Amino acid sequence: MIKKALFPAAGYGTRFLPATKSVPKEMLPIVNKPLIHYGIKECMNAGIFEIGFVTGRSKRAIEDYLDKTPEIENAIKGTNKEKLLEEVNEMIDKCVFTYVRQKEMLGLGHAVLTGEPLIGNNPFAVVLADDLCDGDVLNQMVRLYKKFKCTIIAIEEVKKEEVNKYGVINGKEIERDIFLVEDMIEKPEIDKAPSNLAIIGRYILTPDIFDLLRNTKPGKGGEIQLTDALLKQAKEGMVIAYKFKGKRFDCGSVDGFIEATNYFYEKMKNGK
Ligand code: UTP
User: Fold this and answer.
1) What is the distance between the alpha carbons of residues 134 and 139, in angstroms, rounded to a whole number?
2) Cβ(130) to ligand 1 under 6 A?
3) How far is CA 231 from CA 85, 103, 180, in A?
4) What is the phi/psi pair of residue 32, to 5°?
5) Hey, whose CA ends up nearest to atom 9 of ligand 1?
6) Which of 54, 94, 125, 197 has the fewest CB atoms within 10 Å around its CB?
7) Secondary structure string (H, E, C) spanning 1-35
8) What is the per-residue pLDDT for 190?
9) Taking the CA of residue 53 as centre, how many other CA atoms within 13 Å lie in the half-sphere pointing to its CB?
10) What is the pTM of this model?
């Protein structure tokens, strides 16, 4: 039912300067795989094989990663290194990747709107690859979409002193871990946050979000905020927030990135 995913990946990644001067944040590796690799795998696990990227200047490494590399393949042919390319080659074979460039970085909401030509009039997943999830989070959300047929956003409880880094929701828990969204605020001041339920970088969006985004004025930080359009959607219709099962690392921050590296290194060593 959800066939397409959009990866907004045009942000400057300023927290990772100087590396992100020339390497897209989404291409920074956790152990030996770039962040997008994990995100695409999560999509495939959820039955999503049409993947659109919103990119920008100096993001070409993403396209190169998702293409064949015959010279390298020839060089390692017949060696035990061949298996290192198996997973990415499977992605290249099974998925269709499309790209559009965001010309000005006017915010996540604007990035999603820029992706409209890649999505069309379909419900779709949004993956922020720097939120790295271990577990089938998108798959859990696709299942919920089948039940509720409305926008689903992933949330996580965060420490109270960290709410100002996130979009934060308020809502009524209608089933265990499933909330009907009543309010939503982008990066609230700590004492003004309606809860400690933070929005993380996984969404299933219904396509009416595009019209809402078109009519969304710049909000927090002068950016067109996805959160503002989602709040309108919640008020006019219905939006579900879902406390997912699994582990999430904020790889857009240096601390989260190191934590994820240690975690996935241990997993790799243990052959998981
Ligand atoms: P972030 O808030 O993490 O911004 O964007 P950033 O530029 O990537 O990183 P910092 O804060 O400067 O270190 C959240 C997501 O939205 C995308 C980013 O690529 C990231 O996936 N984004 C943000 C866009 O695609 N376009 C934008 O204009 C803004």
Assistant:
1) 12
2) yes
3) 42, 26, 12
4) -115, 15
5) 13
6) 94
7) CCCEEEEECCCCCHHHCCHHHCCCHHHCEECCEEH
8) 94
9) 27
10) 0.96
Q: Is the CB of 106 under 6 A from ligand 1?
A: yes
How close is the Cα of 231 to the center of ligand 1, in Å? 20
29 forms bridges with which residues in the sheet? Answer: 34
Q: Which residue has the tokens 């979409």?
A: 145
| CA distance linking residue 138 with residue 213, whole number of Å | 23
Q: Are 78 and 33 in contact (CB under 8 A)?
A: no
The amino acid at residue 7 is F
Ligand 1 atom having least distance to the Cα of 128:
21
Q: Whose CA is nearest to atom 18 of ligand 1?
A: 11
Which pLDDT tens digit goes with each residue over 50-95? 999 999 988 999 999 999 999 999 999 999 999 999 999 999 999 9
Nearest CA to ligand 1 atom 22: 11
The residue assigned the tokens 């393949």 is 73
**Domains along the sequence of the chain with CATH:** 4-269 (3.90.550.10)
CB 212 within 8 A of CB 222: no
Confidence of residue 135 (pLDDT cuts 50, 70, 90): confident
**Ligand 1 contact via 95 beta carbon (within 6 Å):** no
